[in-house]
Amino acid sequence: MKVAIFFGSISDQSIMKITEKVLHQFNISYKSYVISAHRLPDILSNTIKKIESEGTDVIIAGAGLSAHLPGFISSKTILPVIGVPIHCHNNYGSLGGIDALLSMVQMPKDVPVATVGINNSYNAALFAIYILATKYQNIKKLLLEFKMKKKEKLITEIKQHLLS
């Protein structure tokens, strides 16, 4: 397993499913875990140790509200952690995901968390792929092909727009 995906609640699954789809597209092995940093800190700590021993390269962690999950994970490992702030629609105290975003980007010194936009688990997966591409040539090749196809598609769309 190259990537471990964490989220603090089942309600976050719909957002984090996008991460899984992107990693699957690049044939990258991953495993997802639903573990609350607040409610199950011992289980989370043990799981982090387990994934480290299994050779995981990158962690993606999605969380809403106070969003402590990515920071908690970062405090327990030296693996890169990518945080996905999640807008919790079913919580009256939600601030539209801004609360989660600020919790992640304002991590204290020595506890780094790379953070993407609110609900943007797509970019979290892509950033993980960029990290993996520095180590694995097969992933680098797929990423370069992916970027070239995106570029060619954009150029085609622009040309079609100019001709219409």
From TrEMBL:
Binding-site list for substrate: S9, D12, R39
Q: Would I find Isomerase among this entry's keywords?
A: yes
Keyword list, A-Z: Isomerase, Purine biosynthesis
Q: What EC number(s) would the UniProt record show? A: 5.4.99.18
The record places domain PurE at: 1-154
Q: Which InterPro entries match?
A: PurE_ClassI, PurE_dom, PurE_prokaryotes
Keyword Zinc included in the entry's annotation: no
Catalytic reaction equation(s): 5-carboxyamino-1-(5-phospho-D-ribosyl)imidazole + H(+) = 5-amino-1-(5-phospho-D-ribosyl)imidazole-4-carboxylate
Taxonomically, the superkingdom here is Bacteria
Q: Name one GO molecular function term.
A: 5-(carboxyamino)imidazole ribonucleotide mutase activity
Its pathway, per UniProt, is: Purine metabolism; IMP biosynthesis via de novo pathway; 5-amino-1-(5-phospho-D-ribosyl)imidazole-4-carboxylate from 5-amino-1-(5-phospho-D-ribosyl)imidazole (N5-CAIR route): step 2/2
One Pfam match, given by its short name, reads AIRC
Q: Which GO terms describe its biological process?
A: 'de novo' IMP biosynthetic process
HAMAP family recorded = PurE_classI (MF_01929)
The UniProt entry's sequence similarity note says: Belongs to the AIR carboxylase family. Class I subfamily.
Quote the function comment for this protein: Catalyzes the conversion of N5-carboxyaminoimidazole ribonucleotide (N5-CAIR) to 4-carboxy-5-aminoimidazole ribonucleotide (CAIR).
PANTHER family annotated for this entry? PHOSPHORIBOSYLAMINOIMIDAZOLE CARBOXYLASE, PHOSPHORIBOSYLAMINOIMIDAZOLE CARBOXYLASE CATALYTIC SUBUNIT
Output this protein's name.
N5-carboxyaminoimidazole ribonucleotide mutase
| Gene it is expressed from | purE
